[in-house]
Write a structure and sequence with these properties.
It is a single chain. The chain folds into two domains: 97 residues, 434 Repressor (Amino-terminal Domain), CATH 1.10.260.40; 159 residues, Ribbon (Umud Fragment, subunit A). It contains ten helices and ten strands. α4 packs across α6 and α5 crosses α6. The radius of gyration is 22 Å and the shape is elongated.
Length: 265
């Protein structure tokens, strides 16, 4: 197998490092296979520094949380594909996860604040640029409840937004606190909210993040009728939707539209 890979690489005129980059693996992995074990301690350290639980990291990668637990405890190692995803989600290099004595950061430049980006910012041009998204406060005792908290940030590569087809400028992150939107969205899932999208369309049933009198924050599907609004969660049917009159709607603030759940397929 190695001989065939080497012959094909030479036929294509690629260096080992170029081929490794194409497959999202390290040069050492390409040469020796998954010889060196990925350090579970380094995975755990980087995960905690990013403020992620095992469930949240698993959701970002589209895998079950017990895989993260296995890797951190050294039960087994991630596959080449998962290793690349893991490094991207933790914003570290594959070499650092495997060796520990190389450049740790996957990007050297300072993260760009998403809300300061120009409207014509091209994520396709700056694919490796780190972009910091703010969180939406979920603590009812905090002044940031239901608001964008620019002091609490999470960093992605610009290429992440390019793949989603989203401009990061008006996006914010939310850690879901209930299971009302099960099975679509579950407690502890992370969603991206477009805070510029606050208009409710007729017959859309799109999930929006709603704030009620700064006391309650909830993701609900919303439709606008002729004289009122319909609100419902995914653990109920639309026939059980709550009807909100236009005067009652004044007490509700639309924080934004839910545009993506990390880890969704």
């Amino acid at each position: 197998m190695k001989a065939r890979i080497r012959a094909e690489r030479k036929r294509l005129g690629l260096k080992q490092k170029q081929l490794a980059t194409c497959f999202g693996v390290s040069t050492e992995w390409l040469i020796y296979g998954n010889k060196g074990e990925v350090s579970g301690d380094r995975i755990k350290k980087a995960r905690k520094e990013r403020g992620l639980s095992q469930r949240q990291l698993g959701a970002m990668m589209g895998i079950a949380a017990n895989n993260i637990s296995f890797w951190e405890r050294g039960v087994n190692n991630p596959t080449a594909g998962n290793l690349k995803k893991l490094a991207d989600c933790l914003c570290v290099t594959i070499d650092w996860l495997e060796e520990g004595d190389r450049n740790r950061c996957s990007v050297d430049s300072k993260p760009l604040d998403s809300w300061k980006l120009p409207d014509d910012f091209d994520t396709a041009t700056f694919t490796d640029s780190p972009i910091a998204l703010p969180w939406i406060g979920t603590d009812p005792e905090s002044p940031a409840f239901g608001q964008i908290d620019h002091t609490s940030l999470f960093t992605f590569k610009a290429d992440f937004f390019r793949l989603l087809g989203l401009h990061p400028k008006h996006l914010a992150m939310l850690s879901v606190t209930d299971n009302a939107m099960n099975p679509t969205i579950s407690k502890s899932d992370i969603v991206l909210v477009d805070t510029q999208e606050t208009s409710i369309d007729s017959d859309s049933g799109t999930p929006f993040l709603l704030s009620y009198k700064r006391k309650k924050l909830a993701i609900r599907r919303v439709e606008k009728d002729l004289a009122d609004y319909l609100i419902w969660a995914d653990n109920r049917t639309k026939n059980q939707a709550l009807t909100i009159s236009l005067s009652e709607w004044d007490a509700i603030r639309v924080v934004g539209k839910v545009v993506f759940k990390l880890g969704s397929v």
